[in-house]
């Protein structure tokens, strides 16, 4: 279908929807069952050009085309630019079927199918605030019995990623490098608590960022609110759980 044909169809649909106006008021197209076409419907041919209210009828195809020609070109309507957000319309738009009728998107069961794909399903996503709330897990640092709290976001374990709603990241297995310095090591104890061999974070510093004197950047003072020690990394390899690597920041 060419662009001009599509435009003409849109103008005809608009003519049927809103009608054409003249000094006597809006015109209308009427159907009856007096003619013998296949559907039992035909355009009524009036002996009078106007109805009882004085408004003109669209009597035949010629009148309809003339009415469509008087409609504004849909392509000439400019975007107001008031709303810059673009989101797909729900499937109930343009139908008489309520939105509650439609089930989840096919991508919910198979990410390869059509629909949105959420990589991290472990938490509650707040689209308005732009935040996600994730569960906290309690662990301990070996040899000190110090309790630490951590979250999980990614793992090389495909099955556990699906079970916990994590992002499956197979290439995290390369994070340790040949010397293994890029990841910490840990193991589950008999109670299922994750015991980290080393690495912790100091949360006592107060975050402070002060702009520079001549230019804002670089800042004259930059103090993070938390500092990891020399052995800390958010990545951890769990030795007694298949040797899989998890992103488990404290």
Task: Please explain how this structure is put together.
The chain is an alpha+beta fold and 250 residues long. It contains 3 helices and 18 strands. The protein has helices spanning 3-18, 61-69, 158-164; strands spanning 21-22, 25-26, 31-32, 42-43, 124-126, 131-133, 137-141, 146-150, 154-155, 167-168, 184-188, 194-196, 201-202, 208-210, 221-223, 227-228, 235-238, 245-247. The protein has an 8-stranded mixed sheet with strand order 8-7-12-11-17-18-9-10, with helices on one face. A two-stranded antiparallel ribbon has the order 1-2. β1 (21-22) and β2 (25-26) form a beta hairpin. α1 packs across α2 (61-69). The radius of gyration is 33 Å and the shape is extended. It starts with a helix and ends with a strand.
| Separate helix tally | 3
Poorly predicted regions are 27-50
Give the integer mean of the pLDDT values.
76
Sheet of most strands = 8 strands, mixed
Terminal-residue CA separation: 58 Å
Strand content: 15-25%
Global geometry: extended
Give the helix/strand class.
alpha+beta
Topology order in helix (H) and strand (E) letters: HEEEEHEEEEEHEEEEEEEEE
Sheet with the most strands: spatial strand order = 8-7-12-11-17-18-9-10
- The amount of helix comes to 10-25%
Rg from alpha-carbon coordinates: 33 Å
What is the total tally of β strands?
Answer: 18
């Amino acid at each position: 279908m060419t662009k001009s044909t599509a435009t003409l169809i849109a103008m005809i649909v608009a003519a049927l929807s809103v009608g054409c106006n003249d000094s006597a008021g809006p015109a209308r197209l009427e159907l009856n069952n007096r003619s013998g076409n296949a559907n039992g419907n035909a355009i009524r041919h009036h002996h009078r050009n106007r109805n009882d209210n004085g408004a003109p009828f669209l009597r035949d195809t010629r009148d309809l085309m003339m009415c469509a020609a008087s409609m504004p070109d849909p392509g000439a309507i400019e975007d107001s630019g008031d709303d810059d957000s673009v989101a797909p319309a729900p499937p109930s738009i343009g139908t008489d079927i309520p939105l509650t009728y439609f089930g989840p998107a096919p991508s919910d069961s198979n990410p390869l199918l059509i629909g949105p794909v959420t990589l991290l399903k472990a938490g509650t996503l707040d689209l308005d605030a732009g935040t996600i709330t994730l569960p906290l897990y309690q662990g301990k640092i070996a040899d000190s019995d110090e309790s630490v709290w951590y979250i999980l976001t990614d793992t090389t374990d495909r099955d556990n990623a699906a079970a916990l709603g994590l992002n499956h990241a197979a290439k995290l297995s390369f994070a340790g490098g040949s010397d293994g310095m890029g990841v910490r090591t840990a193991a589950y104890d008999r109670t299922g608590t994750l015991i980290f061999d080393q690495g912790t974070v100091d949360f006592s510093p107060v975050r402070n960022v002060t702009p520079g004197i001549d230019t804002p950047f670089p800042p004259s003072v930059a103090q993070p609110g938390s500092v990891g020690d020399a052995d800390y990394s958010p990545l951890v390899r769990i030795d007694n759980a298949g040797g899989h690597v998890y992103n488990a920041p404290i």
